[in-house]
Amino acid sequence: MVLNSVVENTFNQQINAELYASYLYLSMSAWLEHADLPGFARFMRGQSQEEYEHAMRFLEHIEDRDGFVRLLPIEAPPTEFDSVEDVIAQALAHEAHVSVLINDIYRITVENEDHAAQVMLHWFITEQVEEEKLFRDILAELRKVDGQSDALLLLDRDMGNRTDTDAGT
Ligand code: FEO
């Protein structure tokens, strides 16, 4: 079934939202690198890469369904953060926002009886649960560290070793 224009439009907007998330996490990674937290910086660089891959999933679905990809301007992300805790709290808030977007797209695919898009979106619904949990858990770890430099050094080292598998895909 060829994509109808309503679903196509929401998918194009979601490509933009995923690319913005990629840009946001890349900006966070750069700030963390500058703040001498290379482990967290590496981790957020990986998250940025994952968001790019999410955008490609939406793009490829449009192409597979003979739809038309329309790339939109990507908003500039913030470049200044208060602390590593602020970075992770903002990432968690952003994931919660993306979950709302995905749920909204899903509702639109149901209204348009687009079953193929719904099957594709199931992966994202599961992914959002994992990503919100991932950032929530890191935030909890940071709160236990509570600014102690030795503990933060250890956590940073640990974050740098977390693989893509730990972080979800
Ligand atoms: Fe693509 Fe982390 O949502």
Brief synopsis:
Helices cover 79% and strands 0% of the residues. With 169 residues, it is mainly alpha-helical.
Written account of the structure:
By secondary structure, the chain is mostly helical. The chain has helices at residues 5-34, 38-64, 84-111, 115-145, 149-161, 164-167. The model has no long low-confidence stretch (mean pLDDT 95). It binds MU-OXO-diiron. MU-OXO-diiron (FEO) binds at residues 18, 21, 51, 54, 95, 98, 131.
CA-based shape: elongated
**What structural category arises from helix and sheet content?**
mainly alpha
Measured by DSSP, the beta-strand proportion falls in under 5%
The radius of gyration over CA amounts to 17 Å
Distance between the termini: 28 Å
Count all strands and give the number.
0
Please report the number of helical segments: 6
Topology (elements, then pairings):
Layout: H1 5-34, H2 38-64, H3 84-111, H4 115-145, H5 149-161, H6 164-167
Helix pairs in contact: 1-2, 1-3, 2-5, 3-4
The structure holds MU-OXO-diiron.
Note the main attributes of this structure.
single chain; 169 residues; mainly alpha; 79% helix; binds MU-OXO-diiron
